[in-house]
Amino acid sequence: MKQSNSCGSQQRSILATWMRSGTSKGLYVLRDQLPKCPSAWEPILLSLMGTGSQINGIGGGTPTTSKVAVVSRSTVPGYDVDYTFAQADFVGARLDMSGTCGNIAAGVGQFALDQNLVEVSHEQEWADIRVLVTNTGQALLVSIPLKNTKCDIRITFLDPNGNMTGKLFPSGARKDYLAFQCPSTGTKVTVRATLIDCTNPFILVDSASMPTLYALEGPKATQSEALIEAIRRAGAVRMGLARDVTEAAKQRGTPKIAVIAHPSASNQSVDVDVTAFIAGVLHPTFQVTGAICLSAALSIPGTVASDLLPSSILCRETFYSKLQSPRIWRIAHRAGQIDVEISVSQDTKGEYFVERGSIIRTARKLFEGRAFYTL
Predict the structure, then answer these.
(1) Which end of the chain has fewer CB atoms at under 10 Å, N or C?
(2) Does the keyword Isomerase apply (predicted)?
(3) Residue 255 preceded by cis peptide, ω within 30
């Protein structure tokens, strides 16, 4: 850490890289630039990213542009690098390290190459980088083309079942009914949802069960965002991630939540339509980890996602008997489409298991140098 004086206050700095990774932006930092104990990172990273309006930091004023990746060479056998994700909650002025980010993971591979954390030869066409997500224990394979100018990065989540809760379906059911008090009307409301832990804990809500208020006001309205947060808190308790809704309110990043629906009449080339939320506000696209969760739910009968599929796709006797074969799901979101390749199997007891899920992202380095903070 380097120190300097600015306007009478002492500033410190660390070496860092700012990257656009997938549909997010984040600060990439080598672990040796930070204190050894992660509990000491919060004031540093919050100062770097900024809180409130973020005018005094490098964060972009949205959750998707306020992310941090801390990367190091791994000491765990079988892995090349360790990746610790941190979400800067600039509204609540806290650092959330409870989950992970698939978009930011795309840049981890490129950053590892730039920082010489992994070795590649001139003969290699691809660099397959084995990444350990320290937040959740998730294993990733980040594949980067070395000789192709079209830098499509393939991120593969290996065995992403129950990383945080120990179960693919934490509640024990593939479909749950969540009851809560509507923040706007005070009335009791119940929605249908699938609670799934596949890379990240996610709540997938059936749009048909949402209160009329949501459809009338639209997902971006303050009332709708409050409604979504109430559902998210109820789901957190049902998943065992919080003891009560008060505790769930303190952890805005986990679980995550999305509302799913049939494809629109104008976009029948996709399998499902999704509206996602992040840290209490509408997400501009859809999280990579959410896409993996949704694809897993689409592949397993009895979830709110698979219930949306037309019978022509399901043909349950044939479709679900071929689960081991990779399946590509096409998901529409607010800014476009995301495709996921997923492999799901079933054991002799009838339990479903996600073997792997893959997605294509891109990443671009925007700048590197010293980032300054004040304690």
Answers:
(1) C
(2) yes
(3) yes
Contact yes or no for 179/188 (Cβ under 8 A):
yes
Q: How far is CA 23 from CA 34, 67, 138, 286, in A?
A: 26, 12, 21, 9
Q: Residue 277: beta bridge partners?
A: 257, 282
* pLDDT higher than 60, residue 323: no
Q: Alpha-carbon torsion 232, 234, 236, 239, what sign? A: negative
In a 10 Å sphere around its CB, with 0-12 CB exposed, 13-18 middle and 19+ buried, how is residue 261 labelled? middle
Beta-carbon contacts of 36 under 8 Å, excluding residues fewer than 6 positions away, are: none
What's the pLDDT tens digit per position in 291-302? 999 999 999 999
Look up residue 313 and give its amino acid: I
Residue carrying the six token digits 């004086």? 5
Question: Biggest alpha carbon distance in the chain?
Answer: 72
| Full-model pTM | 0.92
Contact 110, 104 (CB under 8 A): no
**Phi, psi for residue 325 in degrees, rounded to 5:** -70, 135
Residue 372 has pLDDT above 50, yes or no: yes
The span from the CA of 315 to the CA of 323, in Å, is 13
Contact assessment for residue 285 and residue 276, using Cβ atoms and an 8 Å cutoff:
yes
Rounded to 10 degrees, the C-alpha dihedral 57/63/64/65 comes to: -10
Q: Which domains does the chain have, with CATH numbers?
A: 12-158+363-373 (3.10.310.10), 176-334 (3.10.310.10)
Helix (H) or strand (E) holding 3: strand 2-6
For 152, phi then psi, to 5°, come to -85, 120
Band of the pLDDT at 320, cuts 50, 70, 90?
low
Distance, CA of 155 to CA of 319 (rounded, Å): 25
